Amino acid sequence: MARQLTVAIVSNERIPAYAQLSKIHQKLWINTFVSMLHSILSSSLVIASISSGNNSIKDLVNQATSMELATICISTGYFIYDLVDFLLQGLYLKSPEVILHHVVVLFCYIAALIKGVGIPLLSLALICELHSAFMHVRKLMSLFTFTLSSSYYRKIWRVQWITFGIARFLPHLLITAVVYLERYRFNEQSHFWTAFIGMLIIDTQNLQLFRGLLVSYSRESKKHRD
């Protein structure tokens, strides 16, 4: 539904910037816009869950609230959709690393939902979507030919750097540590290792993402200076 609504909006002749994009970039723009909507929704749910004080602070492994469960279910559905969309639209050719990220995330999410283990931790990890929301906004603006000459675009870059640290990198490191420290709460060692290795992979992908962002910013800065 979100994709169909997006297509209906941007296909309107009043948005010439979209019409001027190549076919593959039109597909990428729509995919990124839907991803932005998911990022806004999921990060809002995580913040609401934390703010309510009803999160499973005493047992982050086995006791999940209804909001935490809903957050993971919604995100699982989104990642399945996005993975299929990436494959069907051929977008993986531009961003093959997204496929690996989604496969790892879906494996952890589906395993958690089936076993009922680690849902609170995964829900908290979705605070990273706050950073993703700004990253998607920056990508959408970039596709519409915004550059660092735009003050709005520069501000989005700044917020993206800040949220990368406080909403993605540091929280994920903390959650990785919590998984290890709370390993005694896992009823089966296989569940612990799935969660722990999964978080280590995500931490590694965060470093790769940071490197990719540095490369993108360096490239855009060079174009801006030239």
Description:
The chain crosses the membrane at residues 28-48, 60-81, 101-128, 161-181. Helices cover 78% and strands 0% of the residues. The chain is an all-alpha fold and 226 residues long. The protein has one domain. The model has no long low-confidence stretch (mean pLDDT 89).
Q: What is the helix fraction of residues, given as a range?
A: over 70%
Largest sheet: none
Instruction: Give unreliable regions as ranges.
Output: none
DSSP summary: helix tally: 9
Strand content: under 5%
**How many strand elements?**
0
Q: How far do the termini sit from each other?
A: 42 Å
Oligomer: single chain
Tell me the count of domains.
1
Order of helices and strands: HHHHHHHHH
Overall mean confidence score, pLDDT: 89
Structural classification: mainly alpha
Radius of gyration: 18 Å
- Can you tell me the overall shape? globular
Secondary structure: elements and pairs:
Blueprint: H1 2-10, H2 16-19, H3 23-52, H4 66-88, H5 96-115, H6 119-125, H7 129-143, H8 151-181, H9 189-225
Task: List the keywords.
226 residues, mainly alpha, 9 helices
